[in-house]
């Protein structure tokens, strides 16, 4: 066995292959020490084989042990070794022993979707740990789990979870069809998989929701959605989703009803502001100052007195600054991050306006845009809103106020046009309609 | 489900403002407009309720599918092209007036065609979506428009300059018989029911449009509001000076607080949305008619991705809008709109008769079979 394995791996130096002899019997052993838990190997194989050796007991252990599997097909050996198994040959029979080294022993902390009073545990980068987290919260025999492997090279394990009784069958079929049709090389993050199965590379909005919160996954499962867990990723993909799901934070369910509603209302307001405010500024400066109250129009125009170029140039400068600042604070290491924020804040805050590069109202607009954008609970959705802002700016540059309204109309139509795995993306009262339809049949 | 039906009735009823209906009514405010509106309530309600009842015979079928059951292909195609032409004309007229209004009140310096381009591009995009998408979009847009409308109405009714005397005086001229033009104009408030010809495909079997009693109320409300509020604000004589009557009327109200001072802009925002909604539906309906005129076409209310034919057909509609605007000016478009309203009215009457006949035929055709199934069921027991 050892020669076969060695030749397949091209004499990899990190592969350990030993022939052990305790005086009574021979044992051939090979494994990757980097991928295996050496303590486990010692306890399960080495101790019984060496100074507690009893041929009958050892044979019985190999035959009945839960973690020992007989694997006679030489073709599967490399695969098993790469997953973190130990291959051992005893009395001309080959067994595999699962001794995967686990990095995660405890659930992670929420980092992207923080919550004040909700559960603080998040998914980890280990699929089994994540399964544990979901099963704990969704403690029902109806929870179906299907295991899959995707990625020619990475061979990432993927788990599809759904509630057998509540799941929407058409979406499930659609998901399976799409998972079969894709042939990626590497799958490293759930976002990547979401993009492959999303089937809409040029879609402006995410049609799957990624979350790191087990409680959200449980809630969505209970509503008949499907969750896809990817090994090595902290995020679960859930689908099908609707527009409103992206604006929903888990805290809304843990707070009293009306507080939650009011916060949601503010969130929508923030979203609209973040999308349209720069465009409205352009419209107010360059096209329709009469649209607003006279005093407001005057103060906008007055603050622009020192600015030497048209409003859209100003907007582009400031939006570029703020985007750069956001990007910098995400990518930079924590220690340097605060420097970037301070420097950026200084420039954006005062200097740019005093130098006459931008108007003071534009600074307010920029900060409102940035802050409102962070109000959106889902990061991929807030990316969409960030990008859509430029569509508005572009149209407002050419058409002013009318352009903004027409773009708003187009976005509504576009959202209604989108489907998330066969389910409408933006539609109200769908559930009621469905019930009525079923009643009438 | 039935709420979707009312969204259509609502936005088409609201579109009267863009299609010079108040202008036509006000021109004849002393000779027949009031009686025209009253007659419109009766005619519109009969047409709407009758059509709704007839379509109950054809669950999940649109007009093209119904016609295909009874007529040879070429007659079906001819009828569909005719109704497509009629609706398209409405859309073209609407787009022209809309572009004019926006140009006049929003960006007077801008080239008229540039505006038209924006409108046409967005209508082509929106119209080429699938039927279900259009249905969803109608609902969302309706809820976007509704608060604005309520606000404008609130401002209008609470305005100190609204002269109820003027309204009362005009309302007194109830005696004169309405002309055909007036009838055509005043029945326009109800035309929304015609969406059933297409959107009936989406309604499931055994589906009932409830609360039909609200049709006369809704139509009468729209009619009286768009006729009497301008009179109340401009006076009985001053009101006839304006072509874009409602824009001017909205401009005569103002906001004391808030970012926006002139109600006109709230009005324009609302009408931008409503007009685009109208264009979207018109383009979509026309496109579906044209696609259905092919004998082997199968209706697909849900279609993703959007097929290329949709884009091509809708682009032709867009080109038609553009060509019209080359020919038209204010006078011509007004004349054409008036003509269109009358033709539309006659067409509606014609199609009403047709659908009644078809529904009766369908009933006769289906009743013997249903009787036989019930008898066999009872004998089986």
TrEMBL record, chain A:
GO terms for cellular component: membrane. The chain crosses the membrane at residues 268-289, 309-328, 358-376, 388-415. Keywords: Membrane, Transmembrane, Transmembrane helix. The keyword Repeat does not apply. It comes from the Bacteria. InterPro entries: Spore_Ger, UPF0353/GerABKA_families. GO terms for biological process: spore germination. PANTHER family: LEUCINE ZIPPER PROTEIN 4 (PTHR22550:SF5), SPORE GERMINATION PROTEIN (PTHR22550). Belongs to the GerABKA family. This is Spore germination protein. It comes from Cohnella thailandensis. The lineage of its organism: Bacteria, Bacillati, Bacillota, Bacilli, Bacillales.
Automatic annotation (TrEMBL), chain B:
The lineage of its organism: Bacteria, Bacillati, Bacillota, Bacilli, Bacillales. This is GerAB/ArcD/ProY family transporter. Keywords: Membrane, Transmembrane, Transmembrane helix. The keyword Transmembrane helix applies. It comes from the Bacteria. The keyword Membrane applies. The chain crosses the membrane at residues 5-26, 32-55, 75-99, 111-128, 140-158, 170-191, 212-233, 263-290, 311-328, 340-361.
